[in-house]
Every structure is written in structure tokens, then in C-alpha cells.
Amino acid sequence: MTVSWIQALREVVGAKHVLEDAASLLAYESDALTLFRCFPAAVVLPDSTEEVVAIMRILHRENIPCAARGAGTGLSGGALVPEGGVILSMTRMNRILQVDAAKRLAIVQPGVINLDLSKRVERIGLRYAPDPASQTVSTLGGNVAENAGGPMCFLHGTTTNHLLAAEVVIADGSLHHWTTEDDLDLRGFLCGSEGTLGVIVQLSLKLIPTPSSVVTMLAGYKDVPQACSVVAKIVAQGMRPVALEVMDQKAIQAVERSVYRAGLPQDAGAVLIAELEDDGGNLQTEQKRLEACMRADSPLHFEIAKTEKQRIAIWKGRKGAGGAMGQLAPDSYVMDGVVPRSKLAEVMAYVAEIEEEVGLPVANLFHAGDGNIHPHFAYDARDPKQCQAVEEAGAKILRKCLELGGSLSGEHGIGLEKEHLMREQFGDKEIALMERLRRVFNPEDLLNPGKGLPMSRGCAEAFHRHRRKSNA
Description:
Layout: H1 5-13, E1 18-19, H2 22-26, E2 36-37, E3 42-44, H3 49-62, E4 66-69, E5 86-89, E6 96-100, E7 105-108, H4 114-121, E8 126-127, H5 140-146, H6 153-156, E9 163-169, E10 175-179, H7 186-190, E11 199-206, E12 208-209, E13 214-221, H8 224-236, E14 243-248, H9 249-256, E15 270-277, H10 283-295, E16 301-304, H11 308-319, H12 321-324, E17 331-334, E18 337-338, H13 344-358, E19 362-367, E20 372-373, E21 375-379, H14 384-403, H15 422-425, H16 428-441, H17 457-460, E22 464-465
Parallel strand pairs: 3-5, 4-5
Antiparallel strand pairs: 1-3, 2-22, 6-7, 7-11, 8-12, 9-10, 9-11, 13-15, 13-16, 14-15, 14-19, 17-21, 18-20, 19-21
């Protein structure tokens, strides 16, 4: 008798690491963007590279689509599979395998939590720079899949600037090693590919020194356009802070009503958080320049963190702001678009217009230094009209980003959320080239099918918007 593919998976990872019951699968029907939902047929949790190789060979033989998933914190509907597909949950592969202080290198499995790596190496004076707001829960494999950024990316760059090499299992179950030393930079191609090229099983990551001193400044302004104007001036003057972050009044007040409260000025229409690191003796000079620029527009409030505790509180407020949005409504749609920094004030004025048009509250917190905006729409997913309204509003804002010379995504990826807009940023020849490159590694489109590129109508309909679908 032929062994079923589900039984074959159980034999690879053990029965308890293959999930099929409805209660377990419910946790995997969406990522953090709950506008898109679809039940997988099963979830399998491998514990080693060898197990991933075996799993992929089984799924390839049976022509079953699959997607790798980390902590499920993605915000573009990127870690879903069509009905009948399988999710590979990489959370058991969570070991830091090696730290080389001399080479400033860490070798890790994909399920390692972002912040855990920095905690592990801080005692030897090193850190891992990319710091998405989800860094306390998001995994390094997921960060690579989306090319995650964070506040520090203004100075230190996004994940692609810190990925040295990766071991990847592609759709047919073969294992490959991609590195910066290859003639063709497949490592770079992997970063931001949203799980469509292969399943990451090991990463080599660059570590950087912990700064000897840090200065964190916070200024409150009358509104978001004024804060954006200050950011544009800072950049125009050639200053390079580690981070330039803006939060509007809705975000400030939500934070101050939450466990993340940081003493932010609630009367301000917006706050700008700026941070400098010692780069070898210029800190005092840069501090004076930055402070002068932030004070020049007559802020309502200005302070420099006097203690490490105060500095940590400010960043806790900024990074916890997304979670604080739960006070505004049962659900949140977090957008991700990019504009030139000189256009920040213009795009944020447009976001305010859309907020008035849609009639739902929008809080804003974003990486102003990179022009990477993150409007948070507060809505109730139980209301189909609100679901449709926020999705249409998001598309309008993304189109505005393109109109202003920006792009569809800064760090959240394309996923299902933006695939219908890809042809508005890229031409047919560019789309065809992307698809051709992907097919080299994923010829039958079994790995995270349809993500990141325009989908056919049939593939798009495999994912269910605005409603839960039972697998019964």
C-alpha cells in the first residue's frame, strides 16, 4: 500500500510535529495582515536541515504547494498557501550555531528571534543592526524573506546589508549555499524574495560593534508636516543619525494609554525621535548640529534622554506603538509605502485626506529617515464594508507613493496585499524577467505560489478576503 504524503511527513518529523486539527490550523490561516485568510491542509515543524530536505522532496513529488513561515508577524499576507497546501513552520530551528567575534559573524538557524541574537552577542561588544518593530518576536529567516528594516536602517541599512550567506533548500529538495563570494549574487536575490526561491535553513549574518555612547533626542511639533520638514532639513544638511522616526498624535496618545507609555508629549501633533551614535570622536559636533536643526522650527517640546532608562523608554514607546493601536479598534491594517524624503509632508497630507474620506481612524508612525510610511488603519474585520474600505484606501495611498516617485514597499514586502499593484510600478518586461528568474529555482511555482508578483485570476481566488473559511 502506498504511504500517504501526510504519513510520510510524520515519519520525517514525528507525528506531533505535523498539525492537522482545525484548532491548530486556525493559528496559521493568516499572518499579521488578517485581511487575507486561508486554511492550510497541514503544518509541519522541522527541526533540522535534513528534515527540511526530506519534507521538500515529499511535497515536490506530490506536487503540493508550500510556504515557509517564521513567527507570522508579516504584514502583507505573504505566509499563506492555497487550500491543500502545507506550511513549514521554522520555529523549532531556533539555534545560534556559532558566533565569531574576530570575524564579527554569527551563524544561525532561521527560527532565531531577531533580538535574541543581539542579546547573545552584546557581552562581547557586538550587535545585529536590523531592528524591525517586531524584533522581540520576529525571526531572522522571516526578516531575510522580507528584507526587514527598522529604525536603525537609516544609517546601518536593511537586512540585505547584513546577510553574508545562506543555506537554502529549493523546491525540488536540493540544498544550496549562496554567498556574497558567488559570481552571481543569489544571496542578494534571496533577500526580499518572500519565500518564493527556497526554504532558508541557515544564515551567516554580519555583526557590528556596540557604540561607546549614544544620544537620543525627542522633539514635539505642532503637526506631522512640520516634523517631516525637519527630517528633510536634517538629511539635506548631510547629517547621518542612526534613526529618524516620526509618530503622530493618535499614535502618541495610544502609547501613553498603554503599557508602553514613555512620557511622550500628548499635546504635540507629532514627535520626532532622532538618535546618534559615537562614530569615533564626532559625536559632540554632530549632536550640536542635530539639536540646532531640531530646535530651529520652534518645537513645542524638546529633550535629550539623560539616562539609559529614559532612552529605553522612548524606544519602547516607539516600537510598542503598533501594539498600542489595539485600543482604537479590534483590527489594524498596517501599510508600507515609500516616498522620497522631500515628499514626506505631501504624502502624509494625502493620508489625512484618505482618513477623512474613509471615516476610520488612522494613526501614523514611520521611518521618516527612509521615507518609509506606515499608516495604521483601525477597523473592525467583522464588518465586510470596513475591510473593503481600508483595502481600497491603502491602494490609493500606495498609488500616491508611486506618483510621488516612491515604491510599493519599504520592508513589508508585496505578498497578497500589493500584487495587484505591481504592474503600476513595473513594466511587462520587468515583471517577465522577475518571473523568469524565479522559475529557475521554483519552476512549478510550488514555493509560496503567487506571492510578490501579479497572480492569475484563479490563483488570486484561492485566498479568501474579508471572511473566515472553515476547513470543515
